[in-house]
């Protein structure tokens, strides 16, 4: 069966747990995501551990955000690990995004627009006034212009971003919660089915899968729902 377009966020405190989750979910999903918690604790070895024998795509979520020269060096340092996707913050600006794209030519650079944990009130607090979709669209256009091949936004903006950037850009949505699930620290959320219907290519899902009693079964259930949605849109 084709794996569902889900990146499971392996936000685990230790490598054994992350590798265990990865083994449980990889029959059902296309991608696993390594974030700051694991990478800062274990470094490059973590990539091979979660990739395992399955050869699942690895999404390295380091959300780089610094001056272009520093980001170029960081992107080059991790490019040799051949992650399928590497994140940078779009707010780092066009030159920074371009530096990452040039430094990691075999990795898709995904620009994070506005974190899904930020509400409209939070945006005002950091000086990004106006509705979240406006800021997301602005940053999306800037990032694509700088060569980003993927964008990260919430499912609430994905339809608008798709309209803005067309079909060639991979749209990635965290902030995904099955119906009735706790949104926790996520502010701009939608269900997996809605995210897919609105044009997301890859859904990032962490705790709704990894905190389940059986992460493999949780991943299989969401994957089956998405496959049904793909078959009968
Ligand atoms: O870049 C990301 O993956 C990301 C961007 C964003 O705006 N919001 C966001 O939640 N994420 C990541 O997506 C994952 C969401 O996890 P859950 O909230 O547990 O589903 C975490 O690993 C976050 O670091």
What's the CATH superfamily, by name?
Aldolase class I
Classify the secondary structure makeup into a structural class.
Answer: alpha/beta
General shape: globular
- What is the CATH fold-level name? TIM Barrel
Q: Biggest sheet, open or closed, and with what strands and sense? A: 8 strands, parallel, barrel
- The helix fraction, in percent, is 40-55%
Model regions low in confidence, pLDDT < 50 over at least 5 residues: none
The helix/strand order is: EHEHHEHEHEHHEHEHEHH
Count of domain modules: 1
The separation of the N and C termini measures 18 Å
Per DSSP, the total helix count is 11
Describe the structure.
This protein is of the alpha/beta class and 233 residues long. The chain has one domain: TIM Barrel. It has eleven helices and eight strands. Strands 1-2-3-4-5-6-7-8 form an eight-stranded parallel β-barrel, surrounded by seven helices. Helix 1 runs parallel beside helix 3, helix 4 runs parallel beside helix 5 and helix 7 runs parallel beside helix 8. It is globular and about 40 Å long. The model has no long low-confidence stretch (mean pLDDT 96). The site of orotidine-5'-monophosphate has 18 residues, from strand 3 and strand 8. InterPro entries: Aldolase_TIM, OMPdecase, OMPdecase_AS, OMPdecase_bac, OMPdeCOase_dom, RibuloseP-bd_barrel.
